[in-house]
Structure formats: structure tokens, C-alpha cells
């Protein structure tokens, strides 16, 4: 599979053939080749560190030390761990000490990796080593092996990115250049604080690169002392043992018990909440005379069922403080505050569906009335935290056991309101502003959604499949940053659902961004109009430019947008919506492609300045 580039003379069109061949060249278009090149002003070798995020397959020190070929004792001492015989918890940052040197003109720390069933060089570099390795360099260092026919048990030399400080850096007191893989949720200020570095030195060490386009790429963090990261959570009761299979079994047990403990915490929390309400409700509620029947209903506890009792709790009350450092417990909101802020769910505060706007303690929220079983959704919200996922600020309990979700407020509402504005006399002014959604905003929205999905698919254990990616579930904040909302259908990937379903839905969103038209619902017998249309549009090479121009959203006619970029995005959408789910790209490949596209079109020459100030229409927060 692949695309033909329109022209190799125009650097902006290099992205066009990327998508269907991305799995073989996704790491070639980056600055790491020069960033990690050897310099005459650099020592021939040095001691350094890479920062590695623990994952399910690599949780005990023996596994991690085998992966990087270093002593587990060194890892223990650098990370201030109490013992070599324990097990780490997932998604924690640890420092790995390495000896760095030059191989040819490249700066690496070489280690040996044993191939497992299903491995490829790409899988080894992006999954086992999390982007600390470029798979092309693995191929270069193992010329006698066939990359397309790797066998379990084969050992390969793996070059891990690293670099020694240059003389000018040593003169500034910099002793180490730590290697770190930049992620979508990273913030350079927070990273500098965590690693005891500085924003300026990080920017300088990375040649002042654009970090928004560095997602999943290795960067350098200059430090003056050995890393002093926050001590990782560590279970010393489960010995890693000397046998690798035994260690793997213990690892899975720890992960299983972590999940069980977290789920139990949710159950216990809700049980204690109900018990606490029952014990103290007579003290907390006083039935007061009121001319308002609705107010009387809200302030009077029901006697027929404990689930109907209203229990006002102060925001921030934590009933199970310290149960688990992995659970980001949402705050408890006083139901009276919510009802006052929405005037008892008045039409004046209604957004749409069962969602209302509420201002509590001078903070604006979106409140959603949720019915039925919300345990799975609550469980997911306690374990996810990403800039491109809508944040659950807290919740409260309404009558009849229903929940009130309290979300962060998205000032610019849902994406579908911008792409498919309703035309009416009362909304003509907002329609005018909505129609101005620019190419840059559309591209950035696509990248934001892809980043959020990558977090769900590849940075949670187990992976989470959203199962409802659509424009109405994509919210836009005041700066048009996109956030995925509505996790009511989300499921762990272990429950018979596949991340490729989200990739298909994401492809449909791309088509809606390009065409400005809404895809038909799954109940429609003619479902799939847009993704079928795009195949015909791109089918004939000589005609695709003119066909795509006619197919694009007519609201963008007045705005300048690059046709090469539109073709690339259309090709991406086509790849995402192929009917064979095994042929769809991985979300990491999508993020990489969109990052390159966003970087390519970042120059002001393509974007008139007037596009940057889009009036905010009446905000509508979806589900």
C-alpha cells in the first residue's frame, strides 16, 4: 500500500505518501538523526541516563535490567528503591543508567534484545523501548538478520538514543544529557521541574525544536546532577525470582491485584458514601416549609429507599483518602449547590440532552444527569488524565440513585455545532462565525483527538476503547483545543472490543472535517456515504485534485488551505475507514502523520491572520 507524491520538489508535499507506508518510515522524518549525532566537542563515552516509563511487560527490576543490559542494583540505587526483589507499578517514570558512546557518527548505548513471538523491529522500538530507539538503526546494526522474518530467540543489537554533553555544556555545569520520549500530555515547564532542569536549557539542548511536533520522539534533558525523580511506587512483597517466567507471572499478578484493589476502592467508596448518608441524614437535612414544590422535594430525604436519600457533601471531601495513589478521586459536590446553580435544572441553563451549565464557587461547569449503571464510566475516569480528554471535576447523587456528573466546561461547545450549524434566523449570527472554522483549526482538532485516542489505546492498562468517537462527542475549549467526551460506551480492550473500531470512527470525523457534511448514522441503511465517496474521489490520480476541491467543505472556499494537505488528510481518512479492521493504521501512526502535517502547515504564509480570531458562538457542551 502507498501513495505517489505529487512532487518531491515541494517539501510541503512530502507528507502525502506517508500514511499507508507509515509503519515503515514513521521515524525517518524527525530531527533525532542530528540531535543524537556525534560531535568533535563531545567525549568519546560517558555515563548517562534514559528515562523509561514502566509498562505491564516490564515491571520488575530484572526485566528492566535485562531490557537495557544494566545491573538491577544500579537501577535500584538511582531510583532510591528499597530492594531489588520488588515489583513496580505501571506508568511510572524511572531513570536507567547507561554508558553512552559513538557508533559511527551516531551516539548510542547498545544493548541486546531477544526476539519474542510477534516482534518486529518497529514493535521493539516503539513498544518495548517506547521510542528510545529508531528501528532503522536496529536494521543497520543487524545486517545478517532478515527484518521481515525474525525468529523467536534471535538476539539483536539495539542502539538506545543517548548523548554526552559537549564542552560548552560542561562549562555550564551540565553533567548529563538524559534521554526522554516526549508525549502529547507533556508540558516543558512541568518536565523541567520534575527533572531539576530548566526550560531554557531543554530548548537549547534540543536545537529549539517545536515540541508539539515531537510527540513519541526522543529528546534531551540537560541536568547538573544525577536524576532525582519522585520515588516510584514499589511492591517489595512479590519477589521477582530468578526465573523469567516466574517473574512474568508475578508481574501479571501485581497488575491484576492493582486493578482489583482499584475496583474494590470504588465499591467501598460508594458503600461508605451511602452508609454515611444514612447515619447522618437526620442531622444534615431539615425539612423546611417552602412555597416551591421542587425545592421541598430536593431538601427532603426519602424514607422509602436509601438510594433516594440526598446527601450534601462538601466539594473535595475524600472518604477513602490514601486508599490508592492511582485513583484520582473526583470531588463530591453538594447537590444543593448544583440545583441552585442551575435553578433546579431550569431551561435557562439547559445546553442540550441532559446537560446543564452551572457556576459553582465562581467556576463554570457542565453538569450531566446520568441514569443507570455508571460504575464502568466512573472507573475509567478515575484512571485517565489527559489534556485531550474531558475532565471529570466531580459528581453528586440526585434523587432515585441517579448521578450528576460535573465536567469541565468547554466554551466553544461540540465540534458538530461548528461543522453542521443549524440555519435559522435566531442563530444566523452564530452561523456566520461557526462557518469560519479554518483549516488550521480543523487540522489541530484532528491532532488533538488522535492524541487523546493514543493515550486511551496505548498508555492505559488495559487499553480503553471509546466506542463513540464522533463530532458531537468532541468538545472545544476557549482556544479550540479538542477534548474527547462521553465515556458511557467505553470498554477495556479485553472485553471483546478492538481499538481499530475507534480508528474507523476517527476516520469518519476526518471526513466530516474535510467535507463539512455529517456522516449518516449507523441505523441508516445507506450508512457510509462519506467513506465510500472518498474512495471515488481519490481513485483516479489525474482527477483527484479537482474532485477533492469540489468535495471539500464549501465554507472554506473563502479561506486559503493547502490542497496537498487536504489530499494527505483525505488519504489518511481513507486508510482509517477500510472495511478490513486489520488493515487500518495504528493510532500512533496517525498521531505521527498529523504531527508532521501540522508542522508542515504552521507557516503564516498559508494562514491569513484573520482566521486566528474566530468569534465564540453560543457554547454548547455535548454529552
TrEMBL record:
GO terms for molecular function: ATP binding; protein kinase activity. Residues 111-158 form the LysM domain. The chain crosses the membrane at residues 254-277. CDD domains: LysM. Pfam families: LysM1_NFP_LYK (PF23446), LysM2_NFP (PF23457), LysM3_NFP (PF23462), PK_Tyr_Ser-Thr (PF07714). InterPro entries: Kinase-like_dom_sf, LysM, LysM_dom_sf, NFP_LYK_LysM1, NFP_LysM2, NFP_LysM3, Plant_RLK_LysM, Prot_kinase_dom. Residues 341-597 form the Protein kinase domain. It comes from the Eukaryota. Keywords: Membrane, Signal, Transmembrane, Transmembrane helix. This is Uncharacterized protein. It comes from Canna indica. The lineage of its organism: Eukaryota, Viridiplantae, Streptophyta, Embryophyta, Tracheophyta.
Amino acid at each position: 500500500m502507498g501513495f505517489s507524491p505529487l512532487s518531491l520538489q515541494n517539501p510541503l508535499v512530502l507528507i502525502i505518501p506517508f500514511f499507508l507506508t507509515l509503519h515503515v518510515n514513521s521515524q525517518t522524518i524527525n530531527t533525532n538523526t542530528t540531535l543524537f549525532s556525534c560531535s568533535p566537542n563531545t567525549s568519546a563515552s560517558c555515563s548517562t541516563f534514559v528515562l523509561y516509563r514502566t509498562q505491564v511487560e516490564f515491571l520488575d527490576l530484572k526485566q528492566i535490567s535485562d531490557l537495557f543490559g544494566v545491573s538491577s542494583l544500579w537501577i535500584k540505587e538511582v531510583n532510591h528503591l528499597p530492594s531489588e526483589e520488588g515489583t513496580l507499578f505501571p506508568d511510572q517514570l524511572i531513570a536507567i543508567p547507561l554508558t553512552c558512546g559513538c557508533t559511527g557518527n551516531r551516539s548510542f548505548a547498545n544493548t541486546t534484545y531477544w526476539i519474542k513471538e510477534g516482534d518486529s523491529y518497529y514493535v521493539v522500538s516503539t513498544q518495548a523501548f517506547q521510542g528510545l530507539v529508531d528501528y532503522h538503526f536496529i536494521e543497520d546494526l543487524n545486517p545478517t538478520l532478515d527484518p521481515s522474518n525474525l525468529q523467536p530467540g534471535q538476539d539483536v543489537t539495539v542502539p538506545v538514543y543517548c548523548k554526552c554533553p559537549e564542552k560548552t555544556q560542561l562549562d555550564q555545569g551540565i553533567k548529563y544529557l538524559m534521554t526522554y520520549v516526549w508525549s502529547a500530555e507533556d508540558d516543558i515547564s512541568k518536565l523541567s521541574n520534575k527533572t531539576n532542569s530548566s526550560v531554557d536549557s531543554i530548548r537549547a539542548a534540543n536545537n529549539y525544536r517545536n515540541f508539539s511536533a515531537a510527540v513519541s520522539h526522543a529528546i534531551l534533558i540537560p541536568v547538573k546532577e544525577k536524576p532525582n525523580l519522585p520515588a516510584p511506587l514499589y511492591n517489595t512483597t512479590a519477589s521477582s525470582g530468578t526465573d523469567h517466567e516466574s517473574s512474568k507471572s508475578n508481574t501479571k499478578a501485581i497488575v491484576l491485584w492493582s486493578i482489583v484493589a482499584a475496583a474494590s476502592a470504588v465499591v467501598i467508596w460508594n458503600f461508605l458514601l451511602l452508609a454515611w448518608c444514612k447515619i447522618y441524614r437526620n442531622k444534615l437535612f431539615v425539612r423546611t416549609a417552602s412555597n416551591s414544590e421542587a425545592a421541598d422535594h430536593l431538601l427532603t430525604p426519602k424514607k422509602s429507599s436509601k438510594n433516594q436519600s440526598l446527601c450534601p457533601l462538601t466539594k473535595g471531601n475524600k472518604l477513602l483518602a490514601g486508599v490508592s495513589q492511582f485513583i484520582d478521586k473526583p470531588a463530591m459536590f453538594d447537590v444543593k449547590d448544583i440545583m441552585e446553580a442551575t435553578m433546579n435544572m431550569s431551561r435557562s441553563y439547559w445546553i442540550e440532552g441532559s446537560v446543564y451549565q452551572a457556576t459553582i464557587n465562581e467556576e463554570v461547569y457542565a453538569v450531566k444527569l446520568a441514569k443507570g449503571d455508571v460504575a464502568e464510566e466512573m472507573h475509567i475516569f478515575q484512571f485517565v488524565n489527559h489534556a485531550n480528554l474531558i475532565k471529570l471535576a466531580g459528581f453528586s447523587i440526585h434523587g432515585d440513585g441517579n448521578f450528576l456528573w460535573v465536567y469541565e466546561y468547554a466554551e466553544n461547545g461540540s465540534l458538530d455545532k461548528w461543522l453542521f450549524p443549524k440555519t435559522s434566523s435566531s442563530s444566523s449570527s452564530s452561523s456566520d462565525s461557526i462557518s469560519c472554522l479554518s483549516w488550521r483549526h480543523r487540522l489541530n482538532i484532528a491532532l488533538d483527538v488522535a492524541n487523546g485516542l493514543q493515550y486511551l489505546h496505548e498508555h492505559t492498562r488495559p487499553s480503553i476503547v471509546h466506542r463513540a468517537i464522533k463530532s458531537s462527542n468532541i468538545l472545544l475549549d476557549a482556544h479550540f483545543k479538542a477534548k474527547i467526551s462521553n465515556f458511557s460506551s467505553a470498554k477495556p480492550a479485553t472485553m471483546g472490543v478492538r481499538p481499530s473500531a475507534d480508528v474507523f470512527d476517527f476516520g469518519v470525523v476526518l471526513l466530516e472535517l474535510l467535507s463539512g457534511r455529517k456522516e449518516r448514522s449507523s441505523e441508516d441503511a445507506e450508512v457510509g456515504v462519506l467513506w465510500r465517496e472518498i474512495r471515488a474521489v481519490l481513485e483516479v490520480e489525474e482527477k483527484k485534485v479537482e474532485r477533492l476541491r469540489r468535495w471539500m467543505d464549501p465554507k472554506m472556499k473563502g479561506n486559503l488551505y493547502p490542497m496537498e494537505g487536504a489530499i494527505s488528510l483525505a488519504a489518511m481518512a481513507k486508510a482509517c475507514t477500510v472495511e478490513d479492521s486489520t488493515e487500518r493504521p495504528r493510532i500512533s501512526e496517525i498521531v505521527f502523520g498529523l504531527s508532521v502535517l501540522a508542522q508542515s502547515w504552521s507557516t503564516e504564509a498559508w494562514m491569513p491572520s484573520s482566521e486566528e480570531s474566530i468569534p465564540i458562538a453560543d457554547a454548547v457542551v455535548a454529552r
